[in-house]
Amino acid sequence: MMWYKYVRTWYKGGSVIIKIAPDRFSLKCPNCKSRSIILKGKKLRRLRAIPIGSKPVFIETDVQHIFCSSCQVTRQVKLGFSKYRRTYTRAF
Questions:
Q1: d(Cα 38, Cα 5) in Å, to the nearest integer?
Q2: So what's the pLDDT on residue 51?
Q3: Are 43 and 77 in contact (CB under 8 A)?
Q4: How far is 21 from 60, CA to CA, in rounded Å?
Q5: Among 43, 53, 63, 83, which is least packed, fewest CB within 10 Å?
Q6: Amino acid 76: pLDDT
Q7: Average confidence (pLDDT) over 72-84
Q8: β-bridge mates for residue 91, sequence order
Q9: Each residue of 77-87: b (16+ CB within 10 Å) or e?
């Protein structure tokens, strides 16, 4: 399981946006689970979470791209709280 740390919260257009970042030391290859990886960029994802009252809540995080030195593949790290190609969290 990958760990995340809280970065900041802001309010925009009546919604709450929570920014989190993955802990760099918990990253591993999703293919072979090796920790011998090289960081190769990231992509910003915004996921819908459970609303607070009537305000919509979004979780924003960077999805890290990694190159594994062991199995020689480039992959995105999987999010632990959302399924592949979904725009919402599991709790939503």
A1: 21
A2: 93
A3: no
A4: 8
A5: 53
A6: 87
A7: 80
A8: none
A9: bebebbeeeee
DSSP character at residue 88: B
The burial of 27, by beta-carbon neighbours within 10 Å (0-12 exposed, 13-18 middle, 19 or more buried), is given as middle
31, exposed or middle or buried, with CB in 10 Å at 0-12, 13-18, 19+?
Answer: middle
Q: Are 57 and 28 in contact (CB under 8 A)?
A: no
C-alpha distances (whole Å) from 40 to each of 16, 24, 37, 52, 73 are: 30, 13, 9, 35, 11
Share of the chain above pLDDT 70, in %: 88
pLDDT at 90 over 80: no
Which residue bears the tokens 């918990």?
Answer: 26
Q: What is the mean pLDDT of the chain?
A: 86
> Model confidence over 13-28: pLDDT tens digits?
999 999 998 888 888 8
